[in-house]
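Final report, results section. Input specification for complex C-07:
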Amino acid sequence: MNQESPTVKTDEAERALSIRHILVALDASPHSLAALRAAVELAARFGAEVQGLFVEDVDLLQLTELPFVCEVRVYSATARHLNFEELERRLRAQAGEMRRALQAAAKQTQTRWAFRVVRGAITPELLAATMEADLVIVGKSGWSPAARQRLGSTAQALFFGASCSTLILQQNSHLRFPLWLVYDGSPLADDALATALALTPEDEETLTVLILAAGPATARRLQARVAARLQARGLAVHFHTLDSSHLQEVASLARRERCGTLIVPASETLLEGSTLLTLLEELETPVLLVR
Amino acid sequence: MKSIKQLTAAELCQHCDPEQFDFETTEELEELAELVGQPRAVEALQFGIGIQQAGYNIFALGPAGTGKLSFVRQLFEEEAKKSPVPADWCYVNNFEQPHKPRALHLSPGKGAALRQDMKQWVEDLRSALSSAFESQEYQTRRQVIVQEFKEQHTRAFEELQRRVKERNMMLLATPGGLVLAPAREGKVLSPDVLQKLSEEEQKQLKQDLQDLQESLQKILLQVPGWQREMRKRLSTLNREIAGIAIGGLIGELRETYADFPEVITYLDTVQADVIENASDFLDSESESSDGDASTEGDDLSSEGDSPSLRRYQVNVLVAHNAPGAAPVVYEDNPTYQNLVGRIEHIAQMGTLLTDFNLIKPGALHRANGGYLILDARKLLLQPYAWEGLKRALQSSQVRIESVAHMYSLISTVTLEPEPIPLNVKVALLGDRQLYYLLWQLDPDFGELFKVAADFDERLDRSTENQQLYARLIGTLVHKEKLRPFNRTAVARIIDHSARVVEDVGKLSARMGGITDLLREADYWAGQAGNSLVTAGDVQQAIDAQHRRADRVQKRLQEEILKDTLLIDTAGAQIGQVNGLAVLQLGNFAFGNPTRITAQVRLGEGKVIDIEREVELGGPIHSKGVLILTGFLGARYTDERPLSLSASLVFEQSYGGVEGDSASSAELYALLSAIARLPIKQSFAVTGSVNQHGQVQAIGGVNEKIEGFFDICQSRGLTGEQGVLIPASNVRHLMLRQDVVDAVAAGKFHVYPVETVDQGVEILTGIPAGTCDKAGNYPEGSVNFLVESRLSELAQKRQAFSAPAGKEGM
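Structure output:
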C-alpha cells in the first residue's frame, strides 16, 4: 500500500491487498479496544498478522521520581503519591489485559497475532513500529478525560507521521460501509481507490466518491477516470464534487448522508494546513488515511 | 275354603298390543323432547331452575341410565336461551401489585375486542413511541442535554488545561487516574532539573501543583452530579415525549370503552406505566431491530413479545358472543383445577415463572351467569374438587388458588388473581345413595343443594305412556341412527321394559338398558338383512343377551338333570318341597329350584334353621323361620306347649341364603313332616308367610317360575307340574312365551296362593280344613292331622316329664 505507483493497471487491487502486518496501538482505553476489534477483523479478511503494541509510558514512570507529584483517582477524586512499583504493576496489568483481549479476539477468527510491550515514549515508539507495518490502527484518543471526543495527541502524530496507512476509530465503532473516498487525482488517490475496492465486500453495492478538484473541468476529468476504473466492478457510484478548498464540507455531507468509513489519500496537499485535522475531529466515522 | 284357580295364559304375560299404535314404523313418529313419566323430577327441576335464591342448586338423583344428564341439560339449554348473555371476564396486569392481577368485566363480545384493541394499541404504541423518539425534535432536545453535559465536562477540563499550561504543568493519564506534573517544553521535568531549581521556585511549583490538584479534584467530584442531572433531565424529556406520543392513542381507547369505568381506570394505569417505562420500550425496540430479541427477550414470551410488552396484554378468561344464550357447561372431568381454573407456569432457567397471561379459566368461569352440570361421583373422587366447588358457591366468587401452594407442596412465584363474582346454577347428577350420604355426612350439602330432583326408574304403563314410550323409542332410534323399528318390535320392547321392572303396570325408565337393546336388535336385523327391525329381531337380541350370560344357569340345570343336585319333579315326599331361589350375577338374574326338607321329633318347641346355625343364612331368612314357629304355636298349640323339635335345611346349598321368599315353602315342608303327609314334588313353591299364615309377595317371580319350568321341560312336561306363587305377585308376571304356551296347552300350571291353607291343599291334595266354632278341624284335613300330631307330641312330652317330677317331690 505504501508503494508509489503512477501507472495503475488491472492488478491494482492485488497490490492494495498486500496488507500483511497490521499494527494496533493498545492502551486499554475504550477507543483502543475498538481499534483492536477492527484490526482482527481486517486481518482475518486479508490473512494478515496482527501486532499489538503496548507502550509503558516512561514519562509516567519518571513522574514517580518527582517528590511532590500526586495522582488523582478519576472516580473517587482522592489524591495520593505515585509510587514507581505500583505504577509499573498497574501498567503491566493493563498490558496483560490487552494481551488477553487480543488473544481472545484472534482465537475467534483464527488470526496470527503477536503482542509486544515496550517501555519508552509513546509516540516515538509507535512511529518506529509503523516502519514494519502495512497498516496501523489506533483509537481516536487515549485515557485523558479532558479530550474524550477530540483527536488525541498520539493519534494525531500517527496520522501525520506514520510510515504506513493509518486507520483511526473511536469507541464502539468499526469499519462500516458504504465507503466514502476522497479523490483528488493524485497517484495516492488511485491507491486509495484500489484500497476502497479491495475493502468493499461482495454484497455491498454502493461507493461514494468525493471528487476534489480546482475547477469543473478537472472535476469532470477526474470523475470520468474514476468511473472508468469502477466499470468492471458493477458498483453503484455516487459522485460528489467539491472544490479543493472546501474539504471541511465533507463533515456536514457525511452527517446528512450515510457514510460508513471515510478513505483519504495522504497526498501532500491534503495533509497541509489544519483542514483535515478539523475534519477528523468533527467526524464520528472511522477514517482511513492511505499511504 | 274356596279352591284355587290356576292362572290363565293371558294372566301370565300382558302383552302390549301392537294394534294400539297407529304407526307402521318408528320413522313416522314425532321426536320426543320431554321426559316421559317423571313428573316429580320435572317439577323439581323446573322449580330449581326458576328459583333464583342462593343455595337452590339441584341434585338430580336416580339410577344410572334414567336420562338425568340429557334431561337436565335440555332444560338448562331451554332456560339459557331465555337468559341474558353474561359478561365477558378478562384478567389484566395490576401495575401496582403485579402478583395480584385485576379482573375486568365487559359486556359480551367486548372482552375479545379489548384484547384486540390493546394488541393493536401496543403495536401502534411501538411505532408511535419510536417515531416520537426518533423525531428531530426529540433527538435535538436530547442532543442538547447530552451536549450540555459534555460541554460542561469539557469546559471544566479545558479551563483546567489552560491553567495547567499557564503554570508550565502537564496533565497526564495513568491507569485509573490523572497526574499533574511540572513540565518544560511539553516534556515532564526530570528529577535532576527539579533538583536544580531554587528553593523558592520549588516552593512555588509545589504550591501551583497543589492548587491545580485541588481544582482537578473539584471537577472530578462534580462529574457524578452532572451525570445525575443529565439523566434526570433526559428522563423528564422522555416522559414528556412519551406522554405526547401516547396521549392521542389512549384517547381513542377511552372513547371506545367509556361505558366501562373499570376499563377506563385500567387505561389510566396503563398510560402512567407506559410513560414511566418509555425507555424499556425503546430498548426492546432496538433489540428487535438488531435481530437478537428472540434470544434475549425469550422469557415468558409465547408470541415473541418482550416481557415489557406482555404486561399490556389482556387475558380474556371468558368470552361470549353478544347475540347468544347463557352458557350451559358440562364438565366431564371435574378436577379442582378444571373447576376453579389454574395458574400455569413457564420453566425458565430452571425456575418456574408466571404472570396474569397464564391464568386459565375453569368450568365455574365458563358457566358463570349460566348453568353447570357435574357428575357427583366424579366430583367427589377428585381431591379438593368438592371443597373447591362448595367454597365457590358459598362465597359466590371464584378465587383461583393452586392446591400445591395451599398445602406448601411447592413454593414458586405465583399469583393471587382478583376473585370473580359467581352466579351459577349447579346441577349435580348422582345415585340416590350418594345423595343421602352427602346429606348425612356433609353439613354444607343441604345448604347448597336445596333442590332434589328424584328420577324414578319406573313409570306407569298407561295407554298414554305407552304411546309416549313408543315415541321415545323412535327418538332413540333416530338419535342412534338405527334401522326403523316396526310397531311389533316396539310392542316387544315395551313388554321387555315391563319385564325388566317386574311389573305389568310399569315400564322401565332406565333408557340406557333399553337403548342397548335397540342397538342389539338393529344389529340382528342387519345380520338377517332386514331393513326394518321386527319383533323377531328384538326377541333375538333378548335371547342373545340371555345366552351370553347364562353359563352358570345352564351348569346348574345340567347338574339337576344329572341328579347331582337332587330335585324331584314327580312323585310325593314327606317333609320335602321344591323351593325357588334367584341368583343375581352381574346384571343377569335367573331362578333355580332348591330342595327344602324338614324333620320333626319330640322336643321343646324349637324350629332349628340349620342355615342359621352354620351362619349361612342371613338375618331376614332367620326372621322368616322364626315367624314359622310363631305361626305353628298360635294356630295349633295355643293352650299347650309346642312340644316338637324341628330342623329345616336348604339341601345342597353351599353358599349363603338370604331373604324370606322361601318361608312358605319351609312351612309346607314342616306341616308335611308334622302331619306325615307327602307333598307332590311336581310343584315348586315361592312366597313368604306371616304369623297368620298369609302368603306375601316376593321378588324375581318371573325368573323363579321360568327356572322350575326349564327343569320340568328338560325332563318332559307331565301336565302335573306347576308353581305356587303369592297371589299379590300376579301383577308382576311377564313370563317367557314358551311358559305361557305350555300353560295355555295345560302342560304347566301357575297357582296364585293367598294363604298357607290354599297352598297346602294343592301340594298335598287333601283339604286344609277350617276350624269350627269349638276350635276343632274336620277330621282328615291337613290341619286336623297337624294338630293331632302336635297334641300327641305334647302328651308324650308331659309323659316324659311327669314321672321325673313325681320322683323329685
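The interface with chain B takes residues 28, 57, 59-60, 62-63, 65-75, 77-79, 82, 87, 90-91, 93-94, 142-149 of chain A (CB under 8 Å). Chain A has two domains: 17-169, 176-290. This concludes the modelling results for the funded period.
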